[in-house]
Design brief:
Strand 7 and strand 8 form a beta hairpin. Helix 2 runs parallel beside helix 11, helix 11 runs antiparallel to helix 12 and helix 12 crosses helix 17. With 620 residues, the protein is of the alpha+beta class. It contains 21 helices and 22 strands. The strands form 5 sheets. Strands 1, 2, 6, 7, 8, 9 and 20 form a 7-stranded mixed beta sheet that branches. Among the domains are: 136 residues, Elongation Factor Tu (Ef-tu), domain 3 (Beta Barrel), CATH 2.40.30.260; 95 residues, Orthogonal Bundle (Arc Repressor Mutant, subunit A); 52 residues, GidA associated domain, C-terminal subdomain (DNA polymerase, domain 1, Orthogonal Bundle).
Length: 620
């Protein structure tokens, strides 16, 4: 009934979809197995992509030839570039999406990918022979063979949904949990643990009074996520902001004795940076109110996502609390919020390729590795799909460094440090964030993607044109002289010191309060010279000129740090023989088995003296 596949991907969430697409597009024959064909690429939580650091990840996925950026652009209902008031290293694109359109576009793109087959069934076990993954066993009893398997099970592994004192098995609302895989992997020597996450109630937008809330419109200029020419919406839908109150908090507290979190019925640790509303009012008792973002779920639906009100309290408590929020006095609930507890495998059990150390040709991606968020899952899926293809074809794994991509930072953090709570990406996690901006993801990653066979020739041509255009603009700015009479009115208008003698345009641009677009609009000669160039070329040139000193400093630091990455630690290295290492350092090195001195230096508990000792012992 089934042929032998190159790669089987288990789970069709964000990680599974990117894994299937990547592996198929570079030549592997892929089977994507999902428990429900109607929920491929489902946005299980909020209907949005991107945000702080997450937006950078989506742009990196796009530059690597993944689909998330394109799908996001084709299904967005609102776009905002966050942190515009800060430096460009902090700019982060974010989109509200039409939930149903997002999933439909993903499925459409996967169905148009020639090497992807689909099958609806639960996977209850793996075929493992002599320490190598060789296929899966489904709930219907089928044994399907493959050269590699990628597990992207999300929150489905032994998932339990909690609403107040009620709990029942499930991987998502109205969908059953997946069983069998955790137990088999534990029997093979893997360590598993439990995490939890939650989701807010969904409400009827027709029952809300938006006149009492603050409107949050989208940006006038829609940059989008994909570096390709995707169509953008001609109009946008607004989001809205309202707040909880002390009365709302008091009502919520009446349900604490029935809360699964406070009553101890949930063992898993929840996301620190996206806590439930009951967790917020417990941890931040001094705050009289908390902000809520009221987000539409699509173009043609009245369903609303109440961002900031994640909860697992009893339904009647949720309802009473919601009715006391400004604008929610007559609210109708579509479905209550709930918490979900699920199995994950601490990611220190993986190699940098996301292949497991214990079982060859078995890869993990997404929430199974302890992450939270669509974007974090999608980028892992992309890399797992690429590396599964590389492994079965005896090719070198593709590993992004910390100075090359946020994706590299995320995977390095997971492998080197592990996580005991749902891991979420932030710009603060990236020490090279001036290099890893959202605007230059294409310049950083497209060439690698092209060599792998993911990025098209068209994408490479676009990047080549962008590089050429940026250099031409920089040359124009370095050669063009500006007279005081031509530019002083603009400088005085922005309260910047006037010039007394002729200066190069480049020097004026270095002023922190001067933007290249505004400078060109105030200086007709410059505006005319920039006309042949696209807005992203102009922005890129401006950023490179204004932040050149910082960019060069980070490049120099990255080069010095990468020297440690070149110092390889043999896989069978015996740390126990090094008596001068502390007990904690030795225990962590034995468990994680770092591949290089660079990785060893980033393990929690390993200090510089430990690295120096290792350097001596490996003959450096």
């Amino acid at each position: 009934m089934f042929p032998e596949y190159d790669i089987i991907v288990v789970g069709a969430g964000h990680a599974g979809c990117e894994a299937a697409a990547a592996a198929a597009n570079i030549g592997s024959r892929v089977l994507l197995i999902t428990m429900n064909m109607q929920t491929i690429a489902q946005m299980s939580c909020n209907p949005a992509m991107g945000g702080i650091a997450k937006g950078q990840i989506v742009r990196e996925i796009d530059a690597m030839g993944g689909y998330s950026g394109i799908v996001t652009d084709l299904s967005m209902i609102q776009f905002r570039m966050l942190n515009r008031s800060k430096g460009p290293a902090m700019w982060s694109p974010r989109a509200q999406n039409d939930r149903m359109l997002f999933a439909a576009k993903w499925r459409e793109m996967l169905e148009e990918t020639p090497n992807v087959d689909f099958y609806q069934d639960m996977v209850k076990g793996l075929v493992i022979k002599k320490g190598v993954a060789q296929g899966v066993i489904t709930g219907m009893g089928h044994e399907i063979k493959a050269k590699a398997v990628v597990l992207t099970n999300g929150t489905f592994l032994n998932g339990i949904i909690h609403i107040g004192e009620k709990n029942f098995g499930g991987g998502r609302a109205a969908e059953k949990a997946a069983t069998g895989i955790t137990e088999q992997l534990v029997s093979e020597g893997f360590i598993s643990d439990r995490l939890k996450t939650g989701t807010p109630p969904r409400v009827d937008g027709r029952s809300l009074d938006y006149s009492k809330m603050e409107e949050q419109p989208g940006d006038e200029e829609i940059t989008g996520f994909s570096f390709t020419e995707t169509s953008k919406p001609k109009e946008q839908r607004s989001c809205w902001i309202t707040y909880t109150s002390q009365k709302v908090h008091d009502i919520l507290k009446t349900g604490f004795d029935k809360s699964p979190m406070f009553a101890g019925r949930i063992d898993g640790v929840g996301p620190r940076y996206c806590p439930s509303i009951e967790d917020k009012i417990n941890r931040f008792a001094e705050r009289e109110r908390h902000q809520l973002f009221i987000e539409p779920e699509g173009w043609n639906t009245v369903e609303i996502y109440v961002n900031g009100f994640s909860t697992s309290l009893p339904e009647e408590v949720q309802y009473e609390a919601l009715r006391n929020i400004v604008g929610f006095e007559n609210v109708r609930i579509f479905r209550p919020g709930y918490a979900i507890e699920y199995d994950y495998f601490p990611p220190t059990q993986l190699r940098y390729s996301l292949e497991t150390k214990l079982i060859k040709n078995l890869f993990f991606a997404g929430q199974i590795n302890g992450t939270t968020g669509y974007e974090e899952a999608a980028c892992q899926g992309l890399m797992a799909g690429i590396n599964a293809h590389q492994k079965i074809n005896n090719l070198a794994p593709v590993i992004l460094k910390r100075n090359e991509a946020y994706i590299g930072v995320l995977i390095d953090d997971l492998i080197s440090k592990g996580t005991e709570e749902p891991y979420r990406m932030f710009t603060s996690r990236a020490e090279f964030r001036t290099l890893l901006r959202q605007d230059n993801a294409d310049l950083r990653l497209t060439e690698l993607s092209y060599r792998l066979g993911l990025a098209s020739q068209e994408r490479m041509d676009i990047v080549a044109d962008k590089k050429t255009g940026v250099e031409k603009i920089k040359k124009i700015l370095s050669e063009l002289s500006v007279e005081p009479t031509e530019i002083n009115p603009y400088l005085q208008n922005i309260q910047s010191s006037p010039i007394t003698e002729k200066q190069k345009a480049e020097k004026i641009l270095l002023r922190p309060d001067v933007e290249l677009k505004d400078l060109a609009n105030s200086f007709p000669k410059l505006k005319e010279l920039l006309l042949p160039f696209s807005p992203d070329m102009v922005e890129q040139a401006s950023i490179q000129i204004k932040y050149e000193v910082y960019i060069e400093k980070e490049k120099d630091l990255a080069q010095r740090m990468n020297q440690l990455e070149d110092l390889v630690i043999p896989e069978n290295f015996d740390y126990k023989k090094i008596q001068s290492l502390g007990n904690e350092a030795r225990e962590k090195l034995v468990r994680i088995k770092p591949g290089t001195l660079g990785q060893a230096s980033r393990i929690s508990g390993i200090n510089p003296s430990d690295v120096q000792i290792l350097m001596v012992y490996i003959g450096r």
